[in-house]
Amino acid sequence: MSRIIAVEHLTLDGVMQAPGRADEDTRDGFPHGGWAHRHADPEQAQFMGRHMAANRGALLLGRRTYEDFAGYWPRQTGDPMADALDKTEKIVASRTGSGPLAWQNSTWLGGDAATAVPELRRRQPDRNLVVLGSGELVRSLLRHDLIDEYLWLIHPLVLGTGRRLFDGVEPVGLRPVETVVTGAGVVITTYRRGGERTTR
Q1: Residue 76, phi-psi category: left (phi > 0), alpha (psi -120 to 50), beta (remainder)
Q2: What's the whole-number mean pLDDT along residues 68-84?
Q3: Residue 183: which residues within 8 A CB-CB, separation 6 or more?
Q4: Closest CA to 89 of 138, 123, 38, 48
Q5: E strand or H helix that includes residue 2
Q6: Which of 18, 30, 76, 179 could form a disulfide with 24 if both were Cys (CB 3.0 to 4.6 A apart)?
Q7: Cβ(2)–Cβ(57) below 8 Å
Q8: pTM for this one?
């Protein structure tokens, strides 16, 4: 059975908005875009490279994240990450998306994610689906208990404002699997579903 793996950069206060660039996502007047770069180091890059190699499959992206990636990564010629993303199948979850997608190996996944994603898993039982960013999609999958594994890169930083991963979701029980701390202080931690859900 394929797994759905959500990979997220987070601050200590749970913010996931715009880790990559200043102009990545300025909704609600968010002024802190690009916050993840200050903690990037070779140790983090090597870990993520191993993780992506071990979980070969398709990327499952929300529409906003896909459009951001498609506007940036195809222009980064000679970058190993860009080359890997070009070759990877990219499935874009959107209720309204239609027509051809310009970035190679990209297709639409129409309909409601809670219905469409389980069907996608049934059609492709031997391939993992890796979600990068895509906060609204992740929260939708969370609400329907469809995420099997979480890989969080927790940065030693508190922002105080910004969109948070777990805004508006019910309690979720998780089981810790692995934790690594990089030299730059990023806690890379893996959880799988199955822990105790109660808050009492």
Answers
A1: beta
A2: 85
A3: 41, 43
A4: 123
A5: none
A6: 18
A7: yes
A8: 0.90
3-state secondary structure of 183: coil
Q: How far apart are CA 161 and CA 147, in angstroms?
A: 26
Which amino acid is residue 46, in one-letter code?
Q
Beta carbons of 95 and 78 less than 8 angstroms apart: no
Compute the half-sphere exposure of residue 58: CA atoms within 13 Å on the CB side of its CA: 23
CA distance 61 to 71: 14
d(Cα 150, Cα 153) in Å, to the nearest integer? 10
Backbone angles phi, psi at 151, to 5 degrees: -115, 110
Query: For the segment 23-56, what is each residue's pLDDT rounded down to a tens digit?
Result: 999 999 999 999 999 999 989 888 888 887 777 7
C-alpha closest to that of 128 among 101, 91, 153: 91
157, two tokens: 């930083």
| Model confidence pLDDT, tens digit, residues 152-187 | 999 999 999 999 998 888 888 899 999 999 999 999
What average pLDDT does this structure show over 73-83?
83
Average pLDDT of the chain is 90
